[in-house]
Amino acid sequence: MDYKQLIDPELKKNARSFPFNRGVIIGGNIYQIIEWHFIKTPAGIEEKELTVKSFSGDPFKITVFTPAGADSNSPALLYVHGGGFVYKAAGYQKRLAMIYAGETGCKVFFPHYRLAPKHTYPAAYEDAVSAYRYITEHSMELGVDPERTGVAGDSAGASIAALICNRWQTENLQLPCLQMLAYPVTDAHMDTDSMKEYTDTPLWDSRSNAKMWTYYCGEDQKLRELASPMHCPLPDVMPQTYIEVAQYDCLHDEGVRYGEKLTLAGADVKIVETKGTFHGYDAAVKTQIVRDNLNNRVQFLRKGFGQGGNYGN
Q1: Residue 311 lies in a domain
Q2: What is the pTM assigned to this prediction?
Q3: Is residue 313 situated within a structural domain?
Q4: Using CB atoms within 10 A as the burial measure, which of 14, 48, 62, 222 is most buried?
């Protein structure tokens, strides 16, 4: 289908499709590394790196974005980037992290976790959990408020962020004050209507999604369920939650389903469907439609950090 006739006019030039295989992943990651380093940090944002060890003892990097004027007890956000569990962070995800820092005054911690297919589940999750634990346990040193520390992510990163919130009790973590999930991966069963319908959507489709789960978990169905937020038992208390789904995205329905599951469990959940959009549409950060939807995310973060404001429409 020609989705360019359906999506928002501002997004048409970004509505491209790419093959998803091991060769493309290798080349893509070379590009991602170069692009990341060419994205300049704007005035008013400080960028630095920390090195943290995961459960396995493997070191990984966390990039920290600190806004000007941040005090010694600032809110903090662990932002887990997407990329099918196989791609390094993209330049636009760096831009989003800096927007969240600059617009909310929070310190954003951006972990560069281990990637599939070399490192299968639970490596990425363990790195992200280790990053979250490090932030809350070293809060005084980092100048953050552990009780105003939230988690966020997009796509596969949102899946990891959701698992942190689902397992905060069993992992003996500080309860996150919020979770913000953009077009999240939630269910390896891949049995929703949108998964069946959107086999050729821009940037991401159900065929790529199936390969993703194979790269991340192999064919082990039990392992896939362990990695799926939809199949994870929920704790007694869940943080307030913002879930954003894109209209033309194979992950649309599982994002909605997951939000409904959290709501039934008593969580405060806001589900927002962005119209005329596709998976990863927010790479077009300079367009009006992206700015409007980012404003919804920022307002949610501000409210979750106790700064007031409304979110969603």
Answers
A1: no
A2: 0.96
A3: no
A4: 62
